[in-house]
Amino acid sequence: MAFNHRSVYRSDVGLFVLLATPVLNDYVVEFLLGFGESDIYRGGAKAAINTFVGVAGVLGLGFALLRLQLADSRAIVGISLFVKTSAAAWLLFAYMQGVSPAFMALAAADFMSALLLLRALVSRNES
Q: Which residue, 93, 100, 79, is CA-closest to 5?
């Protein structure tokens, strides 16, 4: 299996399955927030965060599966690049707000994915 921009789509499926699954998303969020010093993840806030992460996970999973099923196009790669860049920015923002240092690693991963997508977009332009 070649490592290219479609690898980003496949890895997104794996990530978003975790986030979209009710019990698993709790473990993922607890793990990520465990690196920080925030005590927000309890009580009603915990339920709200898990619900939001679950809904975001379902939406992300749908988007990832759709990208794998559709024929590649500049539009799909461009939209994926926008989504990855925006996600990296939000994750970096969460890190800068002191939520958890784990968000810096996630931001870096999304940024690297964005670079793969950018490379695919530029190489399509040169063809």
A: 79
